[in-house]
Amino acid sequence: HVQLVESGGASVQAGKSLTLSCKITGDPYSSNCRAWFRQPPGAERKRIANIATGGGRTYYADSVKGRSTLSQDLTKTTVYLQMARLQPEDTAMYYCAAVKVQGYCGFGLLARVGTDFGSWGQGTQVTVS
Predict the structure, then answer these.
(1) Cα(44)–Cα(42) distance, rounded to whole angstroms?
(2) What is the DSSP letter of 41?
(3) Helix, strand or coil for residue 30?
């Protein structure tokens, strides 16, 4: 089990960039998958990016693909989401999450997991106007 704390959310103008951070405490390898979700007002929570704790390929939802970069530090205790060219539709509460799965942390496998992640952060608000 790990604890997650997001930071970096802000109110920004359209076209600007933000970097969100997620600090992870506990054994980072107790969960082998990390992901970013977002939940716009009145909408369902959706996964937008994920990566294996051990590193490797990153995966992105179409809504953020091409303008987002998910990364981790070498100790795997911080995960980042860099977002560029922000637009009003990016306004949402952003969450990081971690889960232990049997298999590789790929987009398809996590699609089956849905929102049933073992650990969640409290969220950080991004507002784009």
Answers:
(1) 7
(2) T
(3) helix
pLDDT tens by residue, 19-49: 999 999 999 899 999 999 999 999 999 999 9
- Residue 88 · residue 129 · CB < 8 Å: yes
Angle at alpha carbon of residue 30, lines to 27 and 32, rounded to 5°: 120
The number of angstroms, rounded, from the C-alpha of 99 to the middle of its chain's C-alpha atoms is 12
| CA separation, residue 123 to residues 42, 74, 104 (Å) | 16, 23, 25
Please tell me the distance from the alpha carbon of residue 109 to that of residue 97, in angstroms, as a whole number.
15
Chain mean position to CA 32 = 14
Upper half-sphere CA count for residue 3 (Cβ side, 13 Å): 3
